[in-house]
Structures
1.
Amino acid sequence: MSNKETYTMKLDVLTPTHIGCDEKLQKVDLFVGNDKIAILDGHQWTRLLRQYNLLETYLEEASRAGKELNNWAWLQEKNRALDLWSMKEPPFQALMPKPGDMREANDIARFVHDVHQKPYIPGSSLKGVFRSAVLAATIQKEENAAHKERIWNEIDADIGNPYARKATGDKVQEKLLQVFRTPQNGNGKDYDRMLADPFRGLSVSDTAAFGNDATMLSRKLDLTLPVGRNGIEKALPIWRECIRPEQSTTFQLTLDYGWFRHVRLDIHSLQDFLSMLDVYRSIQVEYFESIALREVKKSRSNYQAAQKPQDAKTVLLGGGIGFHTKSLLYAIAPDPDSARILVSKLLAKQTPPNHKHGPDKDAVVSPRTLKCAKVEGFTSKFTKVEGLYRMGMCAISEVK
């Protein structure tokens, strides 16, 4: 049954992309200069302070100032001649440009990193995006209209059921998987759900690690649709370490064509797989982006659409990119307005009342916010990257 092919793929980061871990950064973990900011390596920083007989003094100051300690200002006071920025091997885990306004940068969500403290993208994060793309494309290609309508009606009923609050999300995914036909074993019996998983034929490695200078700090901004009395942009006191635009890495993609044939999944080549990313883009990216760009014209927002490089497929990757990028209700809905109404009902069930979701509130699109990040001072080889952009935009292509 197995007929596997492995491909080396390239990932280009187009807009700030964040994949988080459990670690939070505070001011005491940083070394902040006038135009640069670094994440300190605790072991190397301690070794350096001991070398210059500053460790005991530093620990006393840290016990007084706590997490608010400004390491750069402290070092300027104690030893102005000790210039960390000019060192050949400074005690830094990461070095990046300093954002314009960091007064509210209290806890900063750290990007996931390997044992060598270098950022990378886990294969599980990539597979999650690819899984959504394959499922969206398969839903779109479903030729049995009655079968597709039945699934939609069942999802509609589940979301409308006031007693099915917590299980709604799982039920939606379960219903959507019905677009696949359950394969049978040699005895003509259906496989159980785990063995019949159509995505067993898709394997994705972790990416190669990025360099220590590949990250930036980015503040979370919500782009609200439509334009309201308070404008369209809402800056939130949430900061994240992100892979910055212009960065690239590689990963291994393995496709088991034998398994895809067994579960009757229409992937017979790498090109078939990549074309499914285009379907995902049209549903999950371009539709919402067209609404955002229309609304931006009514405001003073500097929101811009990131352009993809030629011969590459664009996906949204990572955390903080919005509910709609994980949901496939727009893919199976009979039309965008039906999807808007149903998604607004689902969000009304799953979020606190102060979020104010519902068909009357989400009148233009649901969810009514795009998750964005502010970028300052980068010029990408693909497009000028300065302004407000969607979080997590990345391009995928084959390395030939």
2.
Amino acid sequence: MFVSLCAAVVLQGALFSAEASVGQDANTVVLHDTYAEAHRDAVKLGKPLLVMVGTDWCGPCQMMKREILPKVREHGALRKVAFAFVNADKDQELAQEITGGGPVPQLALYRKSGEGWTRQILVGLQTVEEVEKFVQDAPSADGKSEKEPRSVEERKHAQSIETSKDVSANAVRTARRVVGDEGKSS
């Protein structure tokens, strides 16, 4: 029993605190210390990017991190993805971007398609089987394309641009509404 417990602790440590060796083979398990490393290899190797967003204080997050995901890895479901864990308390900006302000735990899976990147999420505590199914056959649920998941540098640069685009788009909508309303009243 003690040996089994020690093996589980070692496996968890290997899964979430050290980067596995990265190869060019599509079946190599790629685990990363940071989102930036996982993003880089997802783009470089053409692998889907799987990101779990959670916190240290969240019970379901810890169950996903310590019990569910190690079993998913043992079953081989993480071989074809670049995987990273994002702590929502330590990297609030990145967690907000990935979850859209939604609840944790949350798994976000980015896949490249002919039309761009698709994103699908899985929210809450899940079973091993649910996570494996999500990773294995997760085409875009809504068919919408997303932008490519951005690197840390791109996120910071794009944030100011997106804010000004939103302001401009709102100004255009407001101007059209005013012109439209004036045209009806004359």
3.
Amino acid sequence: MLKKIIILAVFTFTCLAGCDKNDSQSNTGIAGRSSLTGKWIRVNDGFENMVIEITSDVNGNLNADLIYVPEYALNYGFEYGDKKIVSITKTGSNEFSAQSLCKSFDGYNYLTVNYSAVKIIQSNDKLVIKDMVWQNRSIGNIQHWERIADGDSKMAFYYYGKSKIAADISKYNDKNKYIAKALKAGTDSAELANIIAWDLAIDGNADCTKALDLAKKACSKTNYQNHIYIDTLAAVFARLGYFENAIDIQQKACKLYIDNFQSLWVGSSSAEKIKYCKEYDDDYIAYLNRLNLYKSNRPYTEY
């Protein structure tokens, strides 16, 4: 009996020691064991729905790539597949230090790329990433992220991002596979429904039949007040051969664009805005060019 108790005690101690070892490694970057590894979606400050994927290499080094980039972030120069966070090092029980990608334009519109020091704080399936420069001030760059897993509808953002990365390296079969997965995961977001519809519309080789429902969903969710989404709907109708619909809808997109144009002085008339945009605003000029295509019974495609 005593022998059995000793054996059981040794076995229990060995198991506990092994568990402790694994737990201590779980946050240090050992491949496949880090609690940070996985997919995370941002939930605050205008960059909502940005997705990063934290991975561990064979040496246990942790890095995070940008998988999905919202339009607002694209305007700041971020790209799908950017190395968003590097050099992740454990500094406490649930804290890590790292370098986070920053991009900015100088006065001459040259993009400056650098990395800033950040602190990552993990609490279960949530991350808070604080810019080290700001973390002790009352206002600063504090990012909130939540883990996303298979089965979550937010995985649609991840799959769409993977489709963009695949397209960038000309892996079009993979692109189509990820688009299908994004559609299956769900497109409740107007933002996501719009960009998938747009991608299908501008791809001359893509099946555009599903794009119509997506574009209508995006417009409906924003009460047909978002000129970007209406521009997409027009492009979809044109790809499907409904040019009269496309013309009518594109004209509405152009009008909404002018109605919402804020770059001129207060009180400027629609005529003044139109004159200015026709000469200087690239987005509005692109809207007009697409309208002219539809009037000549041609869709707008980019590849």
4.
Amino acid sequence: MSEQRLPVDLLRKFEKKLPILEAERRTAERHSAPRLNAFSILGPDERRITSVLSNLLDPSGHHGQGTLFLNCFLRAVGLPEVATFPEKVSITVDAFTDKGRMIDLLIETPNALMGVEVKIFANQSKNQLSDYSDYIEEMSRQILKRHGTRQMPWKLVFLAEQAPETAQSTVIRMPWARREDVEEEGVWAAPFRDIIEQAMPHIKAMRTRSLLDDFLNWIDQTFGNSSMSDDQFEGYAQEISQNFGDPTLRRALGMFMLNKAHQHLHRLAIEAIEKAILDALKKNWPDLQIEPGSTSLYERLIGQHCEWALRRPNWPKGAAIALQNDVRKPFGHVFFGLRALKANNFEAKNYAHMVCVERYIIDEIVTPELPRGETHPWWAWCINSKNTLWDTQFSARLMIESPDGDISQHPDVEFIINHLLLICKKMELLS
């Protein structure tokens, strides 16, 4: 088979399956409207989701199922269940600590104390989890002093898809959805999605079941537990993975992706952008390193204000080149530039590891040498990417428009690389 015929043959293979898939999709839309989801429409943030969890875990909540959800949650983290109802259960939203911080949920039962910190897209603040852990432990001791009984067992649950930055040995990590790639050390509980699924057969009220169906669907959409609406599409993921490595096939895959946008292919495309950036920069500055905690470009752009950052060892502390998503929607608004948090900014005390005490020198020497952009306390210089929305269609367009499917040569990607190269070159003025 000639190289020129490979994309055509591959596209024909997908093309034969598309009419069947499209018919199935239209039928599903007509009879069950699978994309209609109250949670997705409302665009929930940490505060709204915390309110939902508070009501769900409250035995007297609107769900009408008594202790069902609370006991499933307690059992998952190894705490004693609530035996009878109505047994006294106290649930506080935004519980203030002795340091003026707020734990999203603080739950006290007759036999246990549990804090729950909820993260969807936001980052952790400095020592956040260790402060919460210390507070709940001390609260447990105070209960012992007041009632003269044994110290009440307690847990701090971190409901998030990110790793705890502090208190790793005491925090219970509870991911939102199933994650096959999780291998990090720590104390783990079952995914929240699994806990709710285990409770579903015991729910008596149809309205409660319907609400939780929407909740589970939102979790899948938000945290990537299901990149397509049905397992029957798994074959497409395998075929895409096998063929993505050959640049001559990417344009065909991009055309297929526009018809059937697939999260798996989206991730591969973003990873290709990351590799292109690293290859171009490290060619000139081999000592350039990814900042600890930056993980992958794809993972960082899912969250809001989670930058994917690179720096050289000889740069001023806190200074880094970075790409970041500026809104709550994953991949919703991507910009990049030279991050250097001013020491006198009000957020500096919570992000001491990012503070750049030499920011004023960068402002005087480096920033004037860069093209027109924006500056503010967090960024010495920044600019939007040409296309700020990096969704699946953006990735597909890159593959279709790139010469021979090579994403690194697309003008949108070259725009980012060229500016980052310029920043690195101008940073040499400081030495």
